[in-house]
Amino acid sequence: MGIRSMLRLHYCPLALSIMATLAFAGDPGAPGEERGLAIKAAKVLAVPAEGQQVFDNAVVLVKDGRITEVGPQASTAIPEGWETIDVGERWLAPGMIDLHNHVAGSLGDLNDMVYLTNPGLRASSIVSPRNAAVQRGLAGGVTSLLLIPGSGTNIGGQGVLVKVGHPEYEKGEIRNPGSLKLAQAGNPERYLIGVGRSFMNWNTRDTFERGVAYAKRWEAHERDGGERPEVNPQFEVFRPLYAKEAQVSTHTQMYQVVMMTVLMIKQELGIDVYIDHGTFDGWRAASLAEAAKVPAILGPRNIDVPSRRFIDWTGSNPERIQGVAAGYQDMGHTMIGFNTDAPVIPAEELFFQASMGVRYGFRWDELQSVRGLTIVPALAAGIADRVGSLEAGKDADILIIDGDPADPRRGIDAVLVDGVRVYDAERDGRRF
Fold first, then answer.
1. Which of 183, 320, 368, 423 fits a disulfide with 138 by CB distance 3.0 to 4.6 angstroms?
2. How far, in Å, CA of 353 to CA of 276, rounded?
3. pTM over the 0.85 mark
4. What are the two backbone dihedrals, phi and then psi, of residue 324, each rounded to the nearest 5 degrees?
5. How many CA atoms within 13 Å lie on the side-chain side of 14?
6. For the chain, what are the domain ranges?
7. 313: Cβ–Cβ under 8 A, 6 or more apart, which residues?
8. Does pLDDT of 98 surpass 90?
9. Alpha-carbon dihedral of residues 114, 117, 122, 128, nearest 10 degrees?
């Protein structure tokens, strides 16, 4: 029996054992390391921002940790001498991206509640690449994550974007700062003796205005010369924010504060921002967010429940259990992704956030659920030039999977990060 036939068997131990012994390009000591790697599969979910989303009976070519070509097997030439593996009826998909994660370090260190706004604090100083919770995320297909501070204050500090699977932090860093963490309503209201939303909005705007002014002074100095501004670590993050080299990730829930995220950060201050959480009727601001090009990265709450104790089905506008992602979609929002807020939901269950979105009405007829786990968060975080889809020139972060990544019935057989096999279901003994 050939490898293609064996791999058709969903849980065939022999098939997985054969896959585990295959040499992946970039594996330490792999004989194909210098030659490059061709992976053949029944289906490749490429999911680029634009263009062909799916290839049937396709091949992905990988060399030096990057994808060199994706296309049909019949018309894509494999360079002579390259190692070729055929995963049979399995699919290939991009690694998933979680833009709201707290488990890569010590959770306590991520909530240093010094002031109500703390833009100078950095989550990168506490990242532990070998953290078991991060490694488990690989089993669920999560290859990139944004580690962010907690929501005890309005501005908790700077997040960092990292790859999962690298043993050293330096090799896994995608971008630092990965975002500036903003939190509105809810948790920050318990700061010290308690603060109200009016003061939080004023204090947040004041901090951002001072930060933007600081960035403008540096921009003018670098453009025109003159007196060099004094470095202020509290406001350094605003230089990449103002230059649109980083974004604000906003823990924001309820219509009023989701609206303020869009109005204050994007429209008034001109800084790129995306919504995190976005629940508790936040979907009612979706059309405003769409018009302002503010992505919505939703979770871990998947539904909004009726505000009254009993659902009134008889009125002209009856209440219902509202799917959060479906609410944004129904209001015309197109850039919808998902997050876990790990450890609230384990990172390895990121796919299930999309599953629940579909269960509660999110349309997936154009691969919206898969895109919400991959290219949408990559675009939101400004890293789509490297990750989020299977395209030539991008990092070879690849899932070998036996079905739709957002379908809870499927299983992940192996995960490659930068062309290196970092997870194998047979070898590592976990399957999600």
1. 423
2. 13
3. yes
4. -65, -55
5. 8
6. 3-94+396-428, 96-380
7. none
8. yes
9. 70
